[in-house]
Backbone:
């Protein structure tokens, strides 16, 4: 992979994660997952918010797109698992970019 393409990919990763973190509800979802052992069903997550089911699933979708949660099917349920390594990796890379200057 060329250096330019690698830089573009890294920037895209940062943008996806920071876009996901920009909304308060998504940050709360990440915290809830963290403090509840790292995984919960979509229904359990939605039950913690006063917003509608479609709004909650949209937030979960943004977090999944950013790679901050993984989804596993368990029968008819979807279980969302927190990916703390992805969060640390991207945010750490972003902060280290400022060390180079």
Residues:
């Amino acid at each position: 992979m060329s250096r330019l393409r690698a830089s573009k990919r890294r920037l895209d990763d940062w943008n996806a994660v920071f876009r996901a973190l920009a909304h308060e509800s998504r940050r709360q979802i990440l915290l809830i997952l963290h403090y509840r052992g790292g995984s919960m069903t979509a229904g359990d997550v939605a039950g913690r918010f006063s917003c509608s089911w479609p709004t909650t699933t949209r937030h979960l979708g943004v977090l999944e797109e950013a790679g901050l949660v993984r989804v596993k099917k368990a029968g008819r349920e979807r279980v969302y698992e927190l990916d703390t390594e992805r969060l640390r990796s991207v945010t750490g890379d972003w902060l280290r970019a400022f060390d180079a200057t």
